[in-house]
């Protein structure tokens, strides 16, 4: 597994939720390597390699009728909740401008009382917030979250699990589990 695999799987989960909410199938082009490359900022070859890795470990399957990739949401939730912080740990670094993540992101903002700690941000030159830099799961995360608010929620919750105290991580796990229902 590579960190961009999680980004791709969460984008596919976001597309699936969008389909369910709209009670129609999403543009099939979004599920192709070209479509995902465009919205995620990940190369087409890397997306295909990611599909193969994710299929081999049971985090992704292809639908029989449409051949569209579908994330195994139960397995993905389990991996994120119980293993991600050990496989892809996050360490806060220097102060920088960026996009709020973890407990500073809109999905968790105001739900936890902090002791005046600096917020965590993904570095982004056009970011409006200043905080401690956190390397995102993949370098194109700031690009991708500007285009998909649901993906932003998922990735911010993932960072809260990776970075948070037990209380913060538990709330993030609960919220992520609710959002990644099959």
Summarize it.
With 182 residues, the protein is of the alpha+beta class.
Question: What is the fold's blueprint, element by element?
Answer:
Layout: H1 3-22, H2 33-40, H3 44-56, E1 60-62, E2 69-71, H4 73-82, H5 84-87, E3 95-101, E4 120-123, E5 129-133, H6 141-145, H7 149-163, H8 166-179
Parallel strand pairs: 4-5
Antiparallel strand pairs: 1-2, 3-4, 3-5
Helix pairs in contact: 1-3, 1-7, 2-3, 7-8
Structural summary, described in words:
- It is built from 8 helices and 5 strands.
- By secondary structure, the protein is of the alpha+beta class.
- The protein has 2 domains: 3-87, Arc Repressor Mutant, subunit A (Orthogonal Bundle), CATH 1.10.10; 95-179, no CATH class.
- The strands form 2 sheets. Strands 3, 4 and 5 form a 3-stranded mixed beta sheet that branches. A two-stranded antiparallel sheet has the order 1-2.
- The longest helix has 20 residues, at 3-22.
What best-fitting shape do the alpha-carbon axes yield? globular
| SS class | alpha+beta
CATH architecture title of the largest domain: Orthogonal Bundle
Helix content: 40-55%
End-to-end gap: 22 Å
- What is the CATH top level name of the largest domain? Mainly Alpha
Largest sheet: 3 strands, mixed
Domain count: the total is 2
Order of helices and strands: HHHEEHHEEEHHH
The average pLDDT score comes to 90
Low-pLDDT sequence parts: none
CATH fold description of the largest domain: Arc Repressor Mutant, subunit A
Helix tally? 8
């Amino acid at each position: 597994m590579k960190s961009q695999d999680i980004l791709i799987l969460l984008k596919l989960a976001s597309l699936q939720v969008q389909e369910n909410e709209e009670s129609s199938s999403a543009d099939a082009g979004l599920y192709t390597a070209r479509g995902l490359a465009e919205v995620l900022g990940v190369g087409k070859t890397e997306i295909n390699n990611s599909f193969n890795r994710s299929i081999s470990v049971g985090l992704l399957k292809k639908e029989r009728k449409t051949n569209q990739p579908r994330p195994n949401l139960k397995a993905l939730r389990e991996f994120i909740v119980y293993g991600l912080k050990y496989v892809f740990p996050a360490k806060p670094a220097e102060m920088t401008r960026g996009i709020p993540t973890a407990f500073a992101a809109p999905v968790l903002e105001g739900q936890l009382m902090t002791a005046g700690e600096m917020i965590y941000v993904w570095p982004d030159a056009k970011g409006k917030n200043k905080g401690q830099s956190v390397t995102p799961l993949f370098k194109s995360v700031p690009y991708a979250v500007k285009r998909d608010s649901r993906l932003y929620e998922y990735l911010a919750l993932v960072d809260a699990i990776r970075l948070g105290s037990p209380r913060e991580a538990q709330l993030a796990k609960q919220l992520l589990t609710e959002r990644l229902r099959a």
